[in-house]
Amino acid sequence: MARSGDSPAHETTPSTVSHSPRDASSKPAGRPDVLVRRARLEDEPHIRAFTQNTFEWGDYVADAFSEWLQSGSDVYVAEVDGIPVGVTCVAYPAEGEAWFQGIRVKADLRRMGIASMLTETSIAGARERGARVSRANIDSDNYRSQGLAKTMGFRQVSRISEFTVPLAGCLLSEADVLSKDQLTSADASLAGVESDAGIESGAGIESRAGIKSRDGLAPTDGNMHLAIQVTRATPEEAGQLFDAASKQIRYLGCEYVWISLTRQNLARAATEEWLLVARDGRGKTLAGGLMSNPYVEDHIHTGPEDEDGRDAHTDAEGGDLHVQADAAEGHLHAHADAEKGYLCAGLGSLFGTREGVVAIIRHALGLLGTQAAKRNITPGELFVSVESESPVAEELLSNSRQAGLDMREHGETGLWELRLTG
Ligand SMILES: CC(C)(COP(=O)(O)OP(=O)(O)OC[C@H]1O[C@@H](n2cnc3c(N)ncnc32)[C@H](O)[C@@H]1OP(=O)(O)O)[C@@H](O)C(=O)NCCC(=O)NCCS
């Protein structure tokens, strides 16, 4: 459908009704009148109804909807005859940057320009909020959404390779596994748990990895005695990491949302997430990566009962599911009959040397296992996403396997971008 140059969406503030119908004068016969407006909490049952079977696995949008509304994001619905039939959300994860997510249109009303209308309204709203760029993440095989993005002027600027690393399948060394008491107050509070220790400050946790011969890792600087140390970087240290990071990656993210890699964004990420840095024994920076706060998932992509490729689910009947990582002192041992679900975390924006990156993954797994034990939740998996063109992506799979990590390819997405200025 042709875009309407005089769409009222371009004239209203995002706090008011957006527009309806788009390009009404040229609306082909049989196409419904569509109103795009701001979403309201009471839209949720309608959204749940038409998003139930969006994908084979279902959809997350209805569950996220009320959170979207509370988060300060712009959330729009498209309605036909007063009933919501389309939805989308625009978040603002960094200064000047809009993130388009969760666009859905009821199956029997697709290909009628509804998503285009929602996107036009989103773009207008993002401009009014001062965003200079909008981005979206689209699965590499989602041709409909790619078509929509192209129609709206977006272009693909990067590809993201995704991997899962089930904690249960990894050989962690004792050094990777932190005792519960090693969690600092800062790390514990980020993850929403109480810390017993609560005394350390600054960079916090340290672990040593990559020094055992069974890891099969090439020793740093050819010196077997130089351990790789992984710590959580402070916002001040983030500034120093920026130069190394910007040589290999362009975007910052550890889950599904990606923002520009800038000094300022990196420093903020160090405060809000866990910016992990690996250094050799002489203090030279080897690698970095951003780990999300752990979260509980009701299923994981890979697990002990996943031999035939099925997703592992918690046992709804009350917990004979049992996951135990081969780790020191049983720290990672947890039962599903504690809190339901699996503790998972995202790890992204990896850059640096292969030894450093593997050490960071091991450390992140150790952190996840420790948190899981502390919260009495079954440890799940790390969801690792890296820019496909980065040197890390190329080597990640073989190096991690060599290092005893059960790293599995999950898929690839495209990062799409629309410049809103100029
Ligand atoms: C993707 C989706 C939101 C598009 O909604 P829609 O209302 O059908 O989209 P529109 O009618 O506005 O189409 C806009 C453009 O998208 C592309 N497109 C949409 N559906 C398409 C299809 N089935 N095949 C090819 N291109 C398609 C076309 O380029 C189209 O422009 P055109 O009609 O002028 O050729 C809808 O298909 C949907 O809800 N899919 C499932 C959820 C999903 O994948 N969301 C995106 C996750 S990133």
Q: Could you characterize the architecture of this molecule?
A:
The protein has helices at residues 44-51, 61-70, 114-128, 143-151, 185-190, 235-246, 263-272, 354-375, 391-402; strands at residues 35-38, 74-80, 83-94, 97-105, 133-139, 155-166, 206-209, 228-232, 251-252, 259-260, 274-279, 285-291, 295-297, 299-300, 312-313, 322-323, 334-335, 339-352, 377-387, 408-419. The protein is of the alpha+beta class and 422 residues long. The chain folds into 2 domains: 8-131, Gcn5-related N-acetyltransferase (GNAT) (Aminopeptidase), CATH 3.40.630.30; 163-419, no CATH class. The strands form 4 sheets. Strands 1, 2, 3, 4, 5, 6, 7, 8, 11, 12, 13, 18, 19 and 20 form a 14-stranded mixed sheet that branches. A two-stranded antiparallel ribbon has the order 9-10. A two-stranded antiparallel sheet has the order 14-15. 50% of the residues are buried. The chain binds coenzyme A. Coenzyme A is lined by residues 1, 54, 103-105, 110-116, 138, 142-145, 147-148, 151.
Query: Biggest β-sheet, characterized?
Result: 14 strands, mixed
Tell me how many strands there are.
Answer: 20
Mean pLDDT: 77
Separation of the first and last Cα atoms: 24 Å
Low-confidence stretches: 1-25, 179-225, 303-337
Using only CA atoms, what is the Rg?
23 Å
Q: Approximately how much helix is present in the residues?
A: 10-25%
Oligomer: single chain
What is bound: which ligands?
Answer: coenzyme A
**Tally of distinct domains:** 2
Sheet/helix structural class: alpha+beta
Count the DSSP helices.
Answer: 9
Shape: globular
Helix and strand run:
EHHEEEHEHEHEEHEEHEEEEEEEEHEHE
| Strand percentage | 25-35%
